[in-house]
Amino acid sequence: VLSQNLSDFSFFLIYSRDASEKFFNLSRQSSAIQGGHAAAPLAIRVDADLLDGTGVVGDFEEEHISTKKLKAWPMQQAIKTRHFVSVDITDKFGEALPGGSWPEASSQAVVCPIVTMNEGTIMVLIFGINTRRPLDANYKEFLEIITRQFSLSLIKMRAFEYEKRQVLALQEIDQAKTSFFGNISHEFRTPLTLILGLLDEFGSHAHDDRQKEKVEAARRNAQRLLKLVNSLLSFSRLESGHEEAKQEATNIARLTADLANMFRSICEDAGLSLELDVSQAEAYNEGVAYVDMDMWEKIVFNLLSNAFKFTLEGKISVVLRRIPPTSEELLLPAGGAPHLSSNNTALSPTGWIELWVRDTGVGISEAELAQLFKRFHKSETSKGRSFEGSGIGLALLKELVTLHKGTVSVESQVNVGSTFCVRMPAGTRTLTPAASPSRHISKEYIDEARSWISSPSPLHHNSSSSSSSSSTSSSPSLSSTPSSSSRESNSTMSDSLPSQPFAILLVDDNADMRAYLSDLIMKQHPTWLVTCVNDGGEAMAAIHEEIPDLILSDVMMPNVNGFELIAAIRSHPDPQIAHISVILISARAGEQACIDGLKAGTSPVIFFHFY
């Protein structure tokens, strides 16, 4: 732009500050002055105009910097004043410079610093003054406008570059995480396969019910770890381009109904209703669409398990629809891949599949919606049945939908519920043939969901509590106070003891961990009383019923976490409650975790870290 307006100024030089902040390097200049000219050295020291009146440009190793001593532009003066500095060219360099579009030589110039708030002077513009116009107020205002425009453009450009670097850095970290977990997941699968195989064998030969319960608890948690490993491997394959959707003719209505009905008994056990409507999709083309059945399983299970986890009461509804192609879409070439219309609307020659999963759950805040599909993101504020999770379920869901050339969207309102919509082309058979489909309906999602409502009995029983052992396996409501079975067991035990036994309140949202810790305590101290609850809210209700001698609590829990529980205890008006001893059990134990625990209450908090 400047090169095309040499009638407004006779010449221009643009100098940019280098990384060392000691030099300004020549970036651009008008064609009339070549780089290396006495008035246009390739590099100028920042303080050149302060060195005995001369600008020492040389005596450095860089080849592009001349070693010749020259009169220099007043860079330092412009930097210090942050204002225009007028220069007499003839006095400074001994001769006038080209006049641009005019035949007269230019004898006057101005040095204009480009200043930013954070970085100071990052660029210097030097303009030769038009030989046919005086440097009056209007001319100076014109130069100020150019300088401001340069400054704004540079700020925007640097902000964009910074954001780009940040995005690339985050992507590299994200890819490094996925690559690392993908590689290490391969190492996990072999021992997990052996562990699960041996557990199945032990379980089939176990004759004692207590042994079977222990084996089942181990199998559940090994299966949970295998689910995480499989998800990480799926991410790794997706990123490397090795994961491919093998679409085949599928009665998607029937398949979706089968998968959804797997959750029906779990929903009923949790007091939820599950509504299912696939009739419209069943009626269209006999329910047939082209999808990768294994991937469709993961899509449906991820949506259903997510809805179940964050819906404490009410219902979950699943609706599958087929959207026929429009007249415009019918004109598109066959192949199933969506196209973009003139208004950027996706078009599919085979029509669309839409899967809607609605719930009456806790909802998602506006701030969380923007992060919802980012891998490894876990909400720290959502209240659900469990705080457990790796933060990759919905991210994997989005990747699988994208692989089918589809989209996933969500609408949500806090304390009202959420609606997820997966929209995918109905598709055609892929060019890559699918080998005999190894379709399976995995138990891993079902087992995980059931663990959120199950409350297994302690893994150890003694003679005084065996009479009530059958009642401890019930599944209490998440919103209930401590289970009556625990109370009954405790009262039965206390009746047979001569003095009040030591009472422990165990708070953990993982049912297997509650059972395991109860077993450890009962083995070492058979006469102690252990009451188990699901989260901090239930713990406070239990405390108001009976004050325990000690609280063992997890940190990361739904609804009310460990830190919030401590804060509620320490601020309680009853001094007996306010001074209850607390031990926090956390896999995140460390210096910062200890500091956070101490901040939560005035009394010391002990962190116990399992191996």
What's the layout of helices and strands?
Blueprint: E1 9-17, E2 23-29, E3 43-45, E4 55-56, E5 69-70, H1 75-81, E6 85-88, H2 89-93, E7 108-116, E8 120-129, H3 137-205, H4 209-240, E9 248-251, H5 252-261, H6 264-269, E10 273-277, H7 279-283, E11 288-291, H8 293-309, E12 315-323, H9 327-330, E13 339-340, E14 346-347, E15 352-359, H10 366-369, H11 393-403, E16 407-413, E17 417-425, H12 444-451, H13 484-495, E18 503-507, H14 511-524, E19 529-533, H15 536-545, E20 550-554, H16 562-570, H17 575-578, E21 581-585, H18 591-600, E22 606-608
Helix pairs in contact: 3-4, 4-12, 5-8, 8-11, 8-12, 15-16
Describe this structure in words.
The chain is of the alpha+beta class. Helix content is about 40%, strand content about 20%. The protein is built from 18 helices and 22 strands. The strands form six sheets. It has a six-stranded antiparallel beta sheet. Strand 1 and strand 2 (about 25-30) form a beta hairpin. Helix 3 packs antiparallel against helix 4, helix 4 (about 210-240) packs across helix 12 and helix 15 packs parallel to helix 16. The longest helix has about 70 residues, at about 135-205. The protein is elongated and about 105 Å long.
